[in-house]
Write a structure and sequence with these properties.
About 30% of the residues lie in helices and about 25% in strands. The longest helix has 13 residues. It is globular and about 60 Å long. The two termini are about 30 Å apart. It binds ligand SPQ.
Length: about 425
Amino acid sequence: MNSSKLKTNIHGLKGGVAVPGDKSISHRSIMFGAIAEGQTRVTNFLLGEDCLSTIACFRKLGVSIEQEGDHVTVSGTGMEGLKEPKDILDVGNSGTTIRLLMGILAGRPFHSVLIGDESIGNRPMTRVTRPLRLFGAQINGRKNAEYTPLAVKGEQLSSITYELPVASAQVKSSLLFAGLQAKGETQIIEPIKTRDHTERMIRQFGGEIEIDGHSIRIQGGQTLKGTEVHVPGDISSAAFFLVAGAIVPESEIHLKNVGLNPTRTGIIDVMQRMGADISIDPYENESEEPAGDITIRSSSLKGTVIEGDLIPRLIDEIPVIALLATQAEGETIIKDAEELKVKETNRIDTVVNELYKLGADIAATEDGMIIRGKSSLTGGKVSSHGDHRIGMMLAVAAAISSGDVHLTHKEAISVSYPSFFEHFESLQK
Ligand code: SPQ
């Protein structure tokens, strides 16, 4: 197997990085652009493989999408204008694409088949296929539509009231897309608040949505209008440099235009609680999605407990927070995070196993992990297991390792951050 030797023993990361556009917002900009009437212009679109899969799927649904660098123009067809795809819709590695797309297809009067890569084939889909069937959609697939390949035959949908059994922005968003097409008012109740990009975008595209605590109501039959979407930098990508800046000695990193939506900033709260030296300079603009600049400097850190309502606000950052915790004095406990088991990999197992190989004192629990610091990472042979976030976390771990670190499946990083190594190296000069 091909493995890459990563840079180790790094000191003094210095400089600035503008991380690429937010993945969640980029996906949604294409989806809303497609189902809206008129043109949508997107700037700072993420050119990661996942978002390119979303573009490819909507082209197959008859939507004209032009892309020039990170500028994308979507010629919206309106919900009614989507066409039956003549080919299979391949979502690649993207859970967001398949789950949200199913909510749109559930109400379209045609037949479509969805597949993805090996990782997608192991990720649970009943969380969306069950409620979409309650709306009236016909969905078939392996193990009673738990796994891909999935076949969707859209129907005229009837609204539902649905309490989400798991805190998931993907499930919520999928049901909001179905609710937009259903007769009457749909109500969705979240157990814990999750990222709210879909709700914000419905308003941005001229739609109406009522949010009252954990309850969301949407009327079916609304027409959305194309608009301009400026995608802020992805805080989930910035997270790797936030942690690198905190743990690589003598570092100072400036991160520009990072999305600061409060449903995503759990990592900042946790890092501040652990003693990180972070300063935030929020932009004063009217945009739907808040953003700003962040500066991080290395500092000493202490362990903490991460649990409950905080988990959905930092779910994708847990792999790199686990690395951060290896460099904090004392114990860090991460709990209530069972959802990590159904990501691109089982992220409890992959984080624990790979960091353990590098010398960390880390153990898995039923719903998270326990990390004891501060430990010296000594190096070893590790793998991303095809998971972009594990790959980038290991590259940052290598930076503080004393011995050689060899990484296999480094290519997975292109899913969300194709220029990651270029940006990381620019801070090492
Ligand atoms: O799209 P995908 O593959 O599910 O990507 C991940 C990631 O790490 O990039 C999760 F593995 O992000 C999800 C996130 O975990 C993106 C997302 C969204 O855009 O709505 C929501 C979260 O997933 P979930 O299952 O909690 O709704």
